[in-house]
Amino acid sequence: MTFEFPLKELPAVMRGPRVERRRILVGGSAFWGTMQDDTTLRLDDGRSVDATQANYLPPVSPSKIIAVHISYKSRSMETRNKPKPTDTPTYFTKPPTALNGHGGQILKPADCQYLNYEGEYAVVISRTCRNVTPDEAWDYIEGFCPALDMGLQDFRDTDQGSMLRVKGADTLLPIGPGIVRGVNLFEQTLRTYVDGRVVQEAQIGEETIWGPHYVIADIARHITLCPGDVILMGTPCHSRSVDPGHFVECEITGIGRLGGTVVGIDAPRAAALGVGHAPTDTPEVRRVALGFDERVPEHFKENLRLARRPS
Question: How does DSSP classify residue 236?
């Protein structure tokens, strides 16, 4: 069975031709379409629309969203100071209500300081999957999407490590703009941008610790994956906090570029009444939100400093 890279044989989901499916809102209704070129989306009813002006919906309707904690060597080196964080992958979940479309607003409540970006690729499940081997798992993948696994790190001290509120708040999963197949994922580069400046970058094939085939087989040992389910495959080093007004993007060469604007909102009304665990600014919160600058490339830090400068 194939666990390691490079793969001995390219799976069907990564063999061409490239196909990208997007879901948009037209006249108050949702429509699927297939990209014809960089700017034209052909809807399934035959109409053609300008893809650059479309109102995008998430291209997925998952029953569940499962995310890998760490699956990039640079992220493991930054947070653990070793190239592999654990012997096997570990996971958390995000509720489907966290989904957000390309071009959407990413909400940062006024009582939270730390809203961190994490550029990732998402794997979309094509059919019911349970009790498969890693080699078989490729046949259960519909395709891949860029994603931003945003997190309110102020809640790191709550929920006994489940990260429900860190990663689960509304709007914290921009994904899309489409689902892509027919591209060799492991030859692509992932980049995250803040206001157009690169703040994360990784060559996926070089940095990947566990591929999606291994992760799917691992999860599906005990959890049935359903059509449309999403698996988030982790982020490279230099996840940092952003503020209202910042435009955050995740680009995966050959697959697509996704973006969203951070928007400040009032604190929840129940917060003023003392309901629930308040956001905190503790050493553990700062450890994750601020990261380890001495273990990341200098140009990422400089680009983020420039993006944070008042205009």
Answer: -
The helix or strand, by DSSP H or E, that contains position 290, with its residue range, turns out to be helix 283-290
186 exposure class (CB count in 10 Å sphere: 0-12, 13-18, 19+) = middle
For residue 115, the enclosing domain spans: 60-308
Report the relative pairing of strands 115-116 and 151-152 from DSSP bridges: antiparallel
| pTM for the whole structure | 0.96
**Burial (Cβ within 10 Å: 0-12, 13-18, ≥19) of residue 192:** buried
On whether residue 256 sits in a domain, the answer given is yes
Q: Does some domain include residue 15?
A: no
Other beta carbons within 10 angstroms of residue 23's beta carbon come to 21
Read off the DSSP letter of residue 122: E
Q: What is the CATH number of the domain that holds 239?
A: 3.90.850.10
Tell me the β-bridge partners of 252.
190, 256
What CA–CA distances, in Å, run from 235 to 12, 157, 170, 197, 272?
25, 21, 20, 17, 34
* 32-64 per-position pLDDT tens digit: 999 999 999 999 999 999 999 999 999 999 999
- Sheet of 151-152, strands arranged across: 151-152, 115-116, 241-242
Q: For residues 193-208, give the mean pLDDT.
A: 97
**Which residue has 């157009």 as its token pair?**
196
Which helix (H) or strand (E) element contains residue 250? Answer: strand 247-252
Q: Is residue 215 part of a domain?
A: yes
Rounded-to-integer distance, Cα 117 and Cα 75, Å: 13
The DSSP element (H or E) to which 307 belongs, if any, is helix 298-308
The tally of domains found in the chain comes to 1
Q: Match 């690729």 to its residue by tokens.
A: 121
Taking alpha carbons only, the member of 191, 175, 133 closest to residue 11 is 133
CB 194 within 8 A of CB 305: no
In a domain, residue 31? The reply is no
- Counting Cβ atoms within 10 Å, is residue 8 exposed (0-12), middle (13-18) or buried (19+)? exposed
Give the H/E segment covering residue 136: helix 134-137
Rounded-to-integer distance, Cα 99 and Cα 42, Å: 24
